[in-house]
Every structure is written in structure tokens, then in C-alpha cells.
Amino acid sequence: MTVGTAREVRRVKAKSAHEPDKRERILVAAEKLFAQEGYHGVSMRDIAKEADVGLPIIVYHFETKLNLYRSIFEFRKGTLEERLKELRKIVDFESEDAVEGIVRAFVTPILRSHATPDGIYHAQLVVREASDPQEATRGIIEEYFDPLAREFIGALRKAIPTASHEYLCWAYLFSVGALVMSVFDGRMVRISQGKYTGLPITRKITMLSRYIAAGIRTGS
């Protein structure tokens, strides 16, 4: 940080109590850019321009690009918490629809989030992060998504006790793949040659949940 930037950060700090919405605005702007260009394709200055704020205020709130990047996932962790909340409502793992109930808890909060303008950018960002060969150096998937994965796998073991742990771990990853691809409604238009243009969110949740649940049960 240069002397000039440090001086500007101190000035920003004095004003920050009167601008509580700027931090969130920066996070939303950064999320959009990172989703479109990837972690290495975006600079702090790019984010400042997108958020319509000065660079010093970003430095004040986040200090580094990595801190800002990680803060986006902390900002959006409510969706992960909602998935776990829905999962923990399931108490009868011996019922015929237990697997589908687990899958619905897995997909519903995400698909509802995808239906919002900001949610689609977060979905794209998560896909980019998970597929980045350098993601392990940032630890975001391990910190935010791996614990959730283990809890869902644990629930599937209760619902399908005859399935091996190895199979259920793979089944979880295959399910993630199906969920990820469900984001790309635009491709549906192309492959159906314009015949299908998307689904109402409730119908999409039902179709995807049944598809994933059937695959998990059959493959086990």
C-alpha cells in the first residue's frame, strides 16, 4: 500500500460509518466480475469501477483481493445454511421418499437462488471456483462446501445403508454435476432448437430432484 493510498484509507475510515451499504455493493459487484472473468481475471480497480467506489474504500474494507474474494462466500453462506436446515428436518430415513427428500434439501435452496439476478452470478462463481486447478490454495471449497458434502453423504448412508461409503461420495459429486448443469438454461434453448425455453422453478426442482434421486437409488 502506498503512502497516498494509506492516507486515503484513513479518510475513508472516518466516513465509513455513514456509508454502511457500500461494503455490500462492493461484494455484489466483485461477485459479478469474478463470476464472469475468474479470480485472476479481475483487479481491485476493476471492482472499484464496477461498484462505483474509490479503490481506498475497498482496501479499507477488505485489504486484499483474496480477502474480498473469500468475503463473497461468507456473504452468501446463508444458502448453504438453508440447505443444511432443510436436510436436518428429515427424521425418517427409512421412508420410501427419504432419498428424494435429501436431494430436495440439496437442490431447492440453490435453484431458488439461481432464479434471482445475483444468485445466478454466485452459481457461476461457485462453478468457476470448484473447477479452478488452484482452488485448493484458497481453501474456499474445503471450508464452505466440504462440510456440507459430508453431512449430505451421511444422510444418504442412513437412507441407503447397503450402499458403500465410496459409492455415496461419488454419488454426491455426480449430483453436484447435475445441479451445476441445471444452471445453463440457455443451452436448453439451443439443443431443443428453441422448442423449450426453461421451466418454472417449482417444476425444475421436482424434475431435478427426481432425476438425481433415481440415479442414486439405481446406482447403489
Word description of this protein:
With 220 residues, the chain is mostly helical. The protein has 2 domains: 71 residues, Homeodomain-like (Arc Repressor Mutant, subunit A); 143 residues, Tetracycline Repressor, domain 2. The protein contains 13 helices and no strands. Helix 7 runs antiparallel to helix 13. The mean pLDDT is 90.
User: Quick one: overall form?
Assistant: globular
Give the terminus-to-terminus CA distance. 55 Å
- The CATH class name of the largest domain reads Mainly Alpha
Tally of structural domains: 2
Report the β-strand fraction as a percent range.
under 5%
Radius of gyration, whole Å: 20 Å
Q: Can you count the helices?
A: 13
Based on helices, strands and strand pairing, what is the structural class?
mainly alpha
Name of the CATH architecture of the largest domain:
Orthogonal Bundle
Sheet having the most strands: none
Order of helices and strands: HHHHHHHHHHHHH
Oligomer: single chain
CATH superfamily of the largest domain: Tetracycline Repressor, domain 2
Portion in helices:
over 70%
- Topology, number of strands: 0
Q: Might you state the CATH topology name of the largest domain? A: Tetracycline Repressor, domain 2
Kindly state the mean pLDDT as a whole number?
Answer: 90
Q: Uncertain spans, ≥5 residues at pLDDT below 50?
A: none
Fold topology:
Layout: H1 3-15, H2 21-37, H3 44-51, H4 55-62, H5 65-75, H6 77-87, H7 98-114, H8 117-131, H9 135-138, H10 140-159, H11 165-181, H12 185-191, H13 201-219
Helix pairs in contact: 1-4, 2-3, 2-5, 2-8, 6-7, 6-10, 7-8, 7-10, 7-13, 10-11, 11-13
